[in-house]
Design a protein that fits this description.
25% strand; five-stranded mixed barrel; binds 4-amino-1,4-dioxobutan-2-aminium adenosine-5'-monophosphate; eight-stranded mixed β-sheet; alpha+beta; binds magnesium ion
């Protein structure tokens, strides 16, 4: 590559050698006869200060093109900076404006609300905050792949277009080439044999069902791909399109699964703290004070384990007035999950053995006839970040659970086959990648940890 990045230039010894700096103007400051241009390029949290004499002819002739956001190429000598806050600066000799920024550039002013920045998703990546978030997102993606490949897991690509509703919640986006204006509106009237795939098709809500088939072939697999949910929930922790990491393991029960989930989160936290110190300091000082200390503590201690039944008892006994009252059999709301992790346990919590009624059909029954081998990992500030379980591996039990859930076993023949030919105990979980990034960065709203958030009415 012809040019070095800002990150690479910062690593050079500032001994007066000539350097060509390219990037975007962050700020321009004049004092006496000197002009300071802060140049950044998103490769690091840091920027480089380029210093000019404002009397120089070259500078004066270009002055009108040098606004915030303009892209420039500056040649100069890299020297030790006399100023505070940076170790090197560029004594500039030559300046070229590559692309000027029109005066209506919205990122001029210093601080913008996240609400406003969501309206300019194509530009917000240039701010310090979003630069740090997207760099961290990239780091964590790589760390996820590294974690699994070091432990003998194979990456499998499960389909995005699918015919089955893994979670059974009916929150699917349909995929069709039928002419919408001609299709009858009432369900049951449409002849899907005329549709592109010859049957009703949707975007996947989870790669788990296909992942199970691959785990029963390759032993340990994981998926890391986009998933889609047409839930109409406008909250700070729901997206319609989000990325999920789903490991699945054969010859593995619920306790192995819990152990993996806990180790996985802890290792990701440890690596982020050790390898992204600049970004983490930025989040700690600007977004969530105390973040590093709290993540450091979590990275080094055991998660609390508790059954759903005990959690319900503890929540009820707490005397807290919840918006949604708690009783055995209810689905826990995020207010309950936060109270458990923040007030009762002051730690991430793995909740297990949920009532069968509130969990998906594929989870293995416990002997009590009421609960299933489910596990949710809950963290302070957010609530649920992982949902998983041991899978029902007995074919008769599984058929019974499908019928109870209103599903037709005929539509799940291949999934049932896995229980006919060499069935084994197996388990897995799904980690919402954006929730993980929210947890690590301290960002309040999930829409701010993915470059282009997809939520209800977003394209309106
Ligand atoms: O708990 P969920 O629905 O579990 C599954 O989909 C299982 N099939 C996973 C498995 O066992 N392989 O979703 C898993 C995680 C949640 O814990 C949450 O972190 C995230 O996915 N998630 C969402 N993240 C953002 N927006 C949404 N609308 C989400 N729904 C779930
Ligand atoms: Mg869940």
């Amino acid at each position: 590559m012809k040019y070095l990045s800002v990150k690479e230039i910062i690593e050079i010894e500032p001994d007066g050698k000539e350097v060509v700096l390219t990037g975007w103007i962050r700020t321009l400051r004049e004092s006496k006869n000197v002009v300071f241009l802060e140049i950044g390029d998103g490769s690091t949290t840091k920027s480089i200060q380029a210093v000019f004499s404002s009397n120089s002819e070259m500078f004066s002739s270009l002055r009108h093109e040098l606004g915030t956001g303009a892209s420039v190429e500056i040649t100069g000598r890299l020297v030790i900076s006399p100023g505070q806050g940076q170790s090197s600066e560029l004594q500039s000799e030559k300046l070229r404006v590559i692309g000027k920024a029109d005066s209506d550039y919205v990122l001029q002013k210093k601080r913008h609300s996240f609400d406003f920045l969501r309206t300019v998703p194509h530009l917000r990546g240039r701010t310090n905050t979003f630069g740090a978030i997207f760099r961290l997102r990239s780091f964590l993606s790589m760390a996820v792949h590294q974690y699994f490949s070091e432990r003998g897991f194979f990456l499998v690509h499960t389909p995005i277009i699918t015919g089955s509703d893994c979670e059974g919640a009916g929150e699917m986006f349909q995929v069709t080439t039928l002419p919408l204006h001609e299709v009858p509106r009432a369900e049951g009237l449409t002849d899907y044999s005329q549709d592109f795939f010859g049957a009703k098709a949707s975007l996947t809500v989870s790669g788990q069902l296909e992942g199970e088939a691959l785990a029963l072939a390759l032993r340990r697999i994981y998926t890391f791909g986009p998933t889609f949910r047409a839930e109409n929930s406008n909250t700070a922790r729901h997206l319609s399109e989000f990325w999920m990491i789903e490991p699945e393991m054969a010859f593995c029960d619920i306790s192995d699964n819990m152990e993996l989930a806990e180790d996985f989160i802890r290792v990701l936290l440890q690596r982020t703290l050790a390898e992204c110190p600049d970004e983490m300091e930025f989040f700690d000082s600007r977004i969530a004070p105390g973040l590093i200390k709290s993540l450091d503590k979590v990275a080094g201690s055991d998660f609390v384990k508790m059954s759903y039944t005990e959690a319900v008892d503890r929540l009820r006994d707490s005397g807290e007035a919840f918006e949604f009252p708690v009783s055995w059999g209810c689905d826990l709301q995020s207010e309950h999950e936060k109270f458990l992790t923040e007030k009762i346990c002051q730690s991430p919590v793995i909740l297990t053995d949920y009532p069968a009624e509130i969990k998906a059909f594929y989870m293995k029954d416990n002997a009590d006839g009421k609960t299933v081998r489910a596990m949710d990992v809950l963290v302070p500030r957010l609530g649920e970040i992982i949902g998983g379980s041991e899978r029902e591996n007995d074919i008769l039990a599984l058929k019974g659970k499908m019928i109870k859930a209103g599903l037709n076993p005929e539509n799940y023949r291949r999934y049932l086959d896995l229980r006919k030919y060499g069935s084994v105990p197996h388990a897995g979980f799904g980690l919402g990648f954006e929730r993980l990034i929210q947890y690590v960065t301290g960002m309040q709203n999930i829409r701010d940890v993915i470059p282009y958030p997809r939520t209800p009415r977003i394209l309106d």
